[in-house]
Amino acid sequence: RIFHYADKLDYLLYAFALAGAVVTGAALPLTTLIFGKSVASFSGVSTQGNTQEFQSRVNQLVLYYVYIFVGRFVIGYVATLCVCVAGARTTRSMRTAFFECNLRQEIWHFDKPSTGSIAAQVTTNGNRINQGIAEKLYSTVGGLSLFFSSYIVALAVQWKLALITMTIVPANFLIFGVCLHFAISIDERVTRTYSRALVVAQEAISSIKTIKAFGAALQTVKKYDAFLTEAHQIGLAKSPLMGIFFSTSVFLVLAGTALAFWEGYRLYASGEVNDVGTVFTVVLSVTLGATSIITMLPSLEAVSAASSAAGELFEVMDKKTLLDPLSPDGEKPASLTGDIEIKDLHFAYPSRPSAEVLQGMTLKLPAGKTTALVGASGSGKSTIVGLLERWYVPSTGTILLDGLDIAKYNVKWLRSNIRLVQQEPILFQGTIFENVAKGLNEEQLALPQAKRLELVKQACRSSNAHDFVERLPHGYDTQVGERASMLSGGQRQRLSIARSIISDPKVLLLDEATSALDPRRVLLTTLIIAHRLSTVKAADNIAVVANGKIVEQGSHQELLHQDGLYAAVANAQDLGNHDDKEQPTDMEFFDAEDETMFSKTTVKTDSNVITQDKVEQANAASAGYSLLRSVLTMLSEHPDLYLQYAVISFGCIIAGGTYPAQAILLSRLIGVYSLQGEEAGRQANFFALMFFVLALANLFAKFGVGWCCNNVGQVITHRYRREMLQLVLRQDQDFFDRPENASGSLSSQLSSVPAAVQELMSANFGLILNVLTNAISSSIVAIAFGWKLGLVMVFGGLTIILVGGYMRIRLDQKLDAVTGEQFSASAGLATETVTAIKTISSLTLETTVLRQYSDAMQDIVSSVIKGSFVALLPYAISQSVDFLVIALGFWYGSTLVAQGEYTVNQFFVVFLCIVFGGQGAAQFFGYTKSITKAKVAANYMFWLRALNPTIGETPTNQNEAPRGESANLAAENVDFQYKQRTVSKVLQQISFRVKSGAHAAFVGPSGCGKSTIISLLMRFYDPVSGRILFNEDDISTLSPALYRQEMSLVQQEPPLYSSSVRANITLGLDHEASEEEVLEACRQAHVLDFIQALPEGLHTPCGSNGLQFSGGQRQRIAIARALIRNPRLLLLDEATSALDTQSERIVQQALDSAAADSSRTTIAVAHRLSTIKNANVIFVMEDGRIVETGTHDQLLQQRGRYYAMCLAQALDQAHD
Fold this sequence. Notes:
Layout: H1 8-48, H2 51-104, H3 118-133, H4 135-157, H5 159-165, H6 168-206, H7 208-213, H8 217-236, H9 238-269, H10 276-317, E1 340-348, E2 356-365, E3 370-375, H11 381-388, E4 396-401, E5 404-405, H12 411-417, E6 418-421, H13 432-437, H14 442-445, H15 449-462, H16 466-471, H17 489-501, E7 507-511, E8 525-530, E9 541-546, E10 549-554, H18 556-562, H19 565-573, H20 586-597, H21 607-620, H22 627-636, H23 642-672, H24 677-729, H25 733-737, H26 743-761, H27 763-785, H28 787-835, H29 837-842, H30 846-898, H31 904-925, H32 928-946, E11 969-976, E12 987-994, E13 999-1003, H33 1010-1017, E14 1025-1030, E15 1033-1034, H34 1040-1044, E16 1047-1050, H35 1061-1065, H36 1075-1084, H37 1088-1092, H38 1111-1123, E17 1129-1133, H39 1141-1156, E18 1161-1166, E19 1177-1182, E20 1185-1190, H40 1192-1198, H41 1201-1208
Parallel strand pairs: 3-8, 3-9, 6-7, 7-8, 13-18, 13-19, 16-17, 17-18
Antiparallel strand pairs: 1-2, 1-4, 4-5, 9-10, 11-12, 11-14, 14-15, 19-20
Helix pairs in contact: 1-2, 1-4, 1-10, 2-3, 2-10, 2-30, 3-10, 3-26, 3-28, 4-5, 4-10, 5-9, 6-8, 6-9, 6-10, 6-26, 8-24, 9-10, 9-24, 15-17, 18-19, 23-24, 23-27, 23-31, 24-26, 26-27, 26-28, 26-32, 27-28, 27-31, 28-30, 28-31, 28-32, 30-31, 36-38
């Protein structure tokens, strides 16, 4: 089924490649005919003595070997190149198809935790598929060709001896089939477990600030390790299978050889076989056929792994979708008025079918009018957005758009006419222009670049973003970073609004979008979801939602006169200063604030600097260790595995020594056929018995090798996967700010690096040792038996094979470095897409994202093709040069024998030792790609180890905990700028003092540096100059872990993890929290009733990214997470921004009471000044400086910046 994704060119390439594999595979068995004749010639010269005729025959046979070398080299090179190109192209198509199938899925598909591993699936499984359908497929087909042609040759030469010898084949197949069946089943279970583990890692990396703030790295690693342990235990079940397969395969081949020579001599003695050459041809042919199963094992495993990986992808790809955004089906009217009517809507989320969110909601949204939905968190307001966007399907009821059920419209057309600004706006990696331009419709995208830029600027003016963008050094070409980390929350929301309105949609949905829209934009059907009533006062119709129903409707004034729920909430939001001075409207406030809020201090990135950093990072992401040093370093780290490595080494030495032993036995057996009488029969029996003894030795040795290789592989991948996550999580925040360290890229490395190292330190370790033992022992024996021929074949043959293999390793390294970086980039795109799938969907960006991903895949294919032209040359040489070595050996050896310098026995010992050694080396260099990847992977891991975080535990600070029980804070002349943003300082000469037990607040326009202060207090970063004191201790001298234990953080957009509600609340706690502690924290955060109403209460899963809950619900769970720690220092970054008014009042009271504790200091960052009115001290910030300080009343009396902000927010005015 994989090959359904190949096109005509791919099929043509595959046809030529596989035909070439058949030809090159058959070449080796055909040479047994030549070899048999050569043996007969050498045997004849020892008895007949006609040296001239002997050399003439040998020279003719030598030419045949040269012809075969040329043919196999050319065909092998072209065929391998074809299969690598076809494999890369087919895998690209399949990756793209898998990515497309995910984009076609309904939104609830992404609510499942497993979907977080989509980036890992498309990268890791894609790599496995590529290996299985490219080079490994070629090797498998070549092996099958070798297998069948070997037996055809054997049967054609002497059918009786061939049939007797072939008795080993059924046993080999039976063992192979049984082992492979169970191995595939185990591999599938291991892969699924690793995918679940990767979700944990990916969530942690993408929310690294939360992990650091709550000291949850260890907890995360333990959770990750639980999955790794499960995979480890499952994987250990492969050990006996690998031991059985490795040992019995070699045993059967050698035992079959013993049987063949024993029976061969009897047939020779009885006259059924004419000469020794016939026996050797049959024995070597059958042996080649049998050993081809062994040599095919890695290739077959790769093909099997590709099948298993494809099965995982097909599970997703086979899913049928009800709401396909790429489907052409559905109505696409030429015009749209925008009249919406919701009729008796009932709905429950697929993940919680028993909890009905909407219970008969009915509402009209007239065209061109503004309708607002207000109500408590979880009342169903945001659910309406999801249904209008057709992310979900209502249980019953209908939504009409211009009188037609929205289910009848084309999904993409519908979403392109309904634009959404979400509560937590998401921007994508790229420039500001690219982000806003993502909202352009198809007609606008066809416009010239200059016109598109003008449309972007116009949209930014309407969303009050143009001024701050223009102040940036690169303007609209400024990079925003991953998750728009280079911009403040207010800046992100204004750009998000610009992106939504740029296409002039007929319907606009504002889900808790607090930033304002230019009031001059009219003729939009607008739905506003809001908690703050001040943002909806001007709406044409306001609907109050409670328990999934509309309970009140009307204009602001009408609802106030009804004296119902809306009026009660409105009165709660009125803080009561009845200054008669005319106040600016909400719309005017945002226009005014934006004139000053985005100063040059909000400059976030210099694209040139980032580009250079990226180059430096790419060059530095390697410890520079050689393969040998990498292996020795990793060996030294696992002393508990030395016994198993000793077993592997001992087994490999026996296996490697088998080759020269075979050479000696075979040369002696050739001599047997020149003997007469009982002595010949006795020696034939003896040497056949020696082959059987060799078989028994390999049976036990290889069983230990197979068993122990899997054992050490499972242990090593477990340890290194765990260590990799530990190493990543300990890095400074600067590390995660770098574009190349996006969460998708790091998650991809967490998967691929340990897997590559595992292969090197288990199966490939044994392979390397086996080949080295073979090459060294064969060379020593060859030179010892005949130094002239030995030296010529070692340096004239074996050296060529080794040099060719080394060249391929170097070329593979360069190719892997390039493709590795590209795969990381594509994985980052996949992760970003999954994380922002609702934004992708609402903007109908599926086609755009798919094109970007397809282009990234094409770049990888181009790199692979370009690199393969050179990299495959030494590989083709190493796979065919053994024929040239054989030709050299026969030519020079025949000369030495003819001159009487060597005996026939002496020649064959030397000759066969070097031939076997060369074949072992050629086999080894067939694995260079995986060995190269392992070396690169090991160096990446060593490089991570070598990174010394500036902010971390050290021997000097690890026991340095904050002194005393108080929580005094101070900053002295603090300057700060982000390493990724070198243009200007974010904070300039910041100094302040906050006494223990005080409630302090930082306010100011977006981008002024408020949240940066929180980051410095949390010690995510250190100041460029100046210092921050906690109880008069410089926090840079304290243990970060012990310091952070004394504090809690509530972020503006708090992440939740795909575990239970309880696990999210107790995140990072150093003790097992009691049920009473958890419930009390929930009660303080006003989330207890909501949690108890859930089907599984505290044990309810939160879903991927906490998408099971609304923004307000997520925020309150995060507040509970902060309060359960009973911190000395409480940091609130817009802690109540997502709460409805009633919830806000209760939670604010809880926070106020927490702040009133004399042993606790509270630092709040706020846009809404009502939340910090009661603070003991308020610091007003602007342009990275503190410009005013005082209490609320003192600052009002100053009539400065704070006073202007209060007026703008109508903090001190009564309702009209």
